[in-house]
Amino acid sequence: QVHLVESGGGLVEAGGSLQLSCAASESISGVNAMGWYRQPPKKQRELVATYAFDGTTTYTDSVKGRFTISRDSAKNTVYLQMKGLEPGDTGAYYCYADASAGRPVRYWGQGSQVTVSF
Length: 118
Fold this sequence. Notes:
The protein has strands spanning 4-8, 10-13, 18-24, 31-39, 46-52, 57-59, 67-72, 77-82, 91-99, 105-108, 112-117. By secondary structure, the protein is an all-beta fold. Strands 2, 4, 5, 6, 9, 10 and 11 form a seven-stranded mixed sheet that branches. The protein has no helices and eleven strands.
């Protein structure tokens, strides 16, 4: 069963913009936070941004001021607006959702490739 569906991503020149979307299925209950990790080529996965459902947002230092995470609760969707993209932002971006109905569970999206060219 697919719980998170990602869209967006693609190829863009340095300085350009992209938006990622992550829609959560209604089959997931008790979600309290969503966000994105990314995995650059030949590097470890790193946390990029988090949206806690109390409205708190957090970002890794390298994307502060360039990326914005937001949520549309009516659509069960979280967005990652990426501006001023740099080649270092290249990687596979994975959406996640943390749920706590019963035991804590983390769900993952299928991944979206973001490639930033020089």
